[in-house]
Design a protein that fits this description.
By secondary structure, the chain is an alpha/beta fold. Helices cover 33% and strands 27% of the residues. Strand 1 and strand 2 form a beta hairpin.
């Protein structure tokens, strides 16, 4: 489903060059749940951003679902992301001025669907994460765990084949973290969603199919 070949990412300024990723070769199968671990600053989020087409590698090839993506325009990449990928972030990135239902509907605004269809899809996604009774609430009225479940609903509302999760349990206590993890495991098992999750939590990582470790931008496992 995802193939990274000899990926390198270098950040340059006028005075310094930083190697963020070095010779990453990674193949992720359809339906796999992969954890990525490593110390802070080792390149985990950079790797996830490259997989999510939010950042471009300095060298190397990216293939997702047998499509080479290096040479697509920004508009083509945005369309591909909207169709294939769902994103979950540690800090939720919800819009406080929008109700829960409207937050979840956002990715569908870029698709050719009616408002009725968007509301139905968003309601179904919220049902999957157990928040059907919170559709008219605002994010400021929710707990951290509920906010992350809204973020998961937003990530899955367009039925993406791949979810990229950056520390999805990082801001939650252990009980809420386990709830969020159970939702991700259920999506992976019941719907075959391919998931790549960056985490610092060994306990969460052990629940996934496979673990990849990074250190100073290089694969060590």
């Amino acid at each position: 489903m995802i193939s990274l070949q000899n990926i390198q990412k270098v950040y340059r300024t006028s005075t310094i060059e930083t190697l963020a990723l070095n010779s990453i070769n990674l193949n992720i199968k359809k339906g796999e749940f992969l954890s990525v671990m490593g110390p802070s600053g080792c390149g985990k989020s950079t790797l996830l951003n490259i997989m999510g087409l939010l950042d471009a590698p300095s060298k190397g090839d990216i293939n997702i679902d047998d499509q080479k993506l290096n040479n697509l325009s920004d508009k083509q990449l945005a369309q591909f992301r909207n169709k294939k990928l769902g994103f979950i972030f540690q800090s939720y990135h919800l819009i406080n001025d929008l109700k829960v239902l409207d937050n979840v509907m956002l990715p569908l605004l870029y698709r050719n669907s009616s408002e009725k269809e968007r509301k139905q899809s968003a309601s179904e996604a919220l049902g999957k994460v157990g928040l059907s009774n919170r559709v008219k609430h605002f994010p400021t009225q929710l707990s951290g765990g509920q906010k992350q479940r809204v973020a998961i609903a937003r990530a899955i509302v367009g039925k993406p084949e791949i979810i990229l999760a950056d520390e999805p349990t990082g801001n939650l206590d252990s009980a809420m973290g386990n709830e969020v993890m159970d939702i991700l495991l259920h999506l992976n098992k019941s719907e075959g969603t391919t998931i790549v999750m960056v985490t610092h939590d060994e306990h969460m990582a052990k629940k996934t199919h496979r673990l990849m470790r990074l250190f100073d931008g290089s694969q060590v496992q």
